[in-house]
Design goal:
One of its GO terms (biological process) is proteolysis. Belongs to the peptidase S28 family. This is Lysosomal Pro-X carboxypeptidase. One of its GO terms (molecular function) is serine-type exopeptidase activity. Residues 1-25 form the signal peptide. The chain is 40% helix and 10% strand. The chain is α/β, with parallel strands linked by helices and 504 residues long. It has two domains: 56-223 and 404-502, Rossmann fold (3-Layer(aba) Sandwich), CATH 3.40.50; 227-398, Up-down Bundle (Four Helix Bundle (Hemerythrin (Met), subunit A)), CATH 1.20.120.980. The chain has an eight-stranded mixed β-sheet with strand order 1-2-4-3-5-6-7-8, sandwiched between helices. α7 links the parallel β5 and β6 (211-215). The two termini are 29 Å apart.
């Protein structure tokens, strides 16, 4: 199977996902390793390349609803889906390793193809590949149906990260027992929110995994650890580095949009200028679309296309006119094409939209705001407004400090340099979420690997089939592979010393 980045982008419509909820103050950008688009009725989700099922086996595990209580309700179960690729595995007799990919806020269907770092390297490790779906996503839904699972806070309340990583532990125990592989070392891998889960799993379940690769995991974007404007500051820097004139045009466009919108029939003029799918009711509909587009293009600024460069190329070229709004529209067309309407389309509410909305309204409270020194209009994060909107949606309030209470985050080097081990935190510094990532080594075994030109989770995507990946990306992946092989080698040495015998 080819894992060419360009093909991946084509099968995902050359678009990028940033899920925002329906209210303006509840808008934490979606975390996802694989870029997709929150589909609208005008842009339904289609995939030109389906996941190859030749080597993928689908299984279901009877999972507990609640791992942390002993009430009768806690003992209810649901079917949790996981996938296994046996093709490369050296087998239980040789204690060959297991790579476990932690599914995050989406169905697991396309992970074997999209997260091709695993299949690219499994043969050299003789590794078994396991992909585990996150509860409440895909087919791993409690209470019999998504409607029941999302019915109210009482049913959706079992939907959190602690339950998720406990699920993963249970599935891995089951897999190792079923395959008679008690001595096969496990390395957990995840990207973005899944990368958070991988790092937290290693800390909470060190007996279950010998190491974790956490790609683009902004575990420090909680409380006041990371400046709230970090995300959009990086977005702005990306555009400024791509083109100063592009940056300035975007910076000036917001006031121009407001100026036109304030005129008689101004919203109608904007609707025509931007070829909107429906007439604009307010200028913020257009501004939020553009803000999302710029930010997601920066987050997923993958080679060889480099969407930020594509947008800025369109803006600077100005094919539709020399005025500011014509240039901005040219940037939209450069990225999205000129075939259909683009802005203000009616949306299909996906399971990820619903799930991520709940997760950010409960525990994944990432306080992202826009400061005064960016190419966007200032929009500081207001927890009060955020909490009020969440309370209206679910009847419960967010817990903004729970993540750092349960997993840590403050003074991370002081706390983890003795306590933690065998975690790789990888980041691309062009990724806006890298502003909340671990960018410096915490110890000799909790290490940070970053690339100046890297974007969101690029390292765990598949290698370019034509061997044309940038040298820095190849080097980044090679560092990760070398460290992971070191973990496994040391594990075998330790196992031999403990048991006195091991078949390799």
């Amino acid at each position: 199977m080819e894992h060419h980045h360009l093909l991946l982008f084509q099968c995902l419509l050359f678009t990028f996902l940033m899920y925002f909820t329906s209210t303006h103050s509840v808008k934490i950008p979606r975390l996802s390793p694989i870029p997709t688009w929150d589909t609208s009725l005008h842009h339904p989700a289609t995939f030109d390349a389906k996941t190859s099922t030749d080597n993928i086996n689908t299984f279901y595990y009877k999972q507990l609803l609640d791992h942390f209580n002993y009430r009768p309700q806690s003992y209810k179960t649901f079917q949790q889906r996981y996938l296994i690729n046996f093709k490369y595995w050296g087998g239980a007799n040789s204690s060959a390793p297991i790579f476990a990919y932690f599914g995050a806020e989406e169905a697991i269907d396309y992970s074997p193809e999209g997260i091709a770092f695993l299949t690219d390297n499994a043969a050299s490790f003789n590794a078994l590949l396991v992909y585990i779906e996150h509860r409440y996503y895909g087919k791993s839904v409690p209470f019999g149906s998504r409607e029941e699972a999302f019915k109210n806070a009482s049913t959706i309340g079992y939907f959190n990260s602690a339950q998720a990583i406990a699920d993963y532990a249970s599935v891995l125990i089951h897999v190792k027992k079923t395959l008679h592989a008690p001595n096969s070392p496990v390395i957990v891998i995840g990207g973005s929110y899944g990368g958070m889960l991988a790092s937290w799993f290693r800390l909470k379940y060190p007996h279950m995994a010998i190491g974790a690769l956490a790609s683009s995991a902004p575990i420090l974007y909680f409380d006041d650890i990371t400046p709230q404007d970090g995300y959009y500051s990086v977005v702005s820097r990306d555009y400024r580095e791509a083109s100063e004139t592009c940056y300035q045009t975007i910076l000036q466009s917001w006031s121009e949009i407001d100026s036109v919108a304030s005129q008689p029939k101004g919203l109608s003029l904007l609707s025509q200028r931007f070829n909107t799918c429906r007439p604009l009711n307010k200028s913020s509909d257009l501004k939020e679309y553009l803000e999302n587009m710029y930010a997601s293009a920066a987050q997923y600024n993958h080679p060889p296309r480099y969407p930020v460069t594509v947008i800025c190329g369109g803006i600077d070229k100005g094919s539709f006119g020399s005025d500011i709004l014509s240039k901005i529209y040219a940037g939209v067309v450069a990225l999205r094409g000129n075939t259909t309407c683009k802005v203000n389309a009616p949306s299909n509410v996906s399971e990820t939209t619903l799930g991520w909305r709940w997760q950010t309204c409960s525990e994944i409270v990432i306080p992202i705001g826009i400061g005064n020194n960016s190419m966007f209009q200032p929009d500081p994060f207001s927890f009060k407004s955020f909490a009020n909107d969440c309370k209206k949606l679910y009847g419960v309030s967010p817990r903004p400090h729970w993540i750092t209470t349960y997993y840590g985050g403050h003074n991370i080097k002081l706390s983890l340099q003795k306590f933690g081990s065998n975690i790789i935190f990888s980041n691309g510094l062009r990724d806006p979420y890298s502003s909340g990532g671990v960018l410096e080594n915490i110890s000799d075994t909790v290490v940070a690997i970053h690339a100046i030109n890297g974007s969101h989770c690029l390292d765990i995507m598949g290698a370019n089939a034509n061997h044309s990946d940038p040298e820095w990306l190849v080097e980044m992946r090679n560092k990760e592979i070398k460290i992971m092989k070191g973990w496994i080698s040391q594990y075998y040495v330790d196992l031999l010393a403990l048991n006195g015998t091991i078949k390799l």
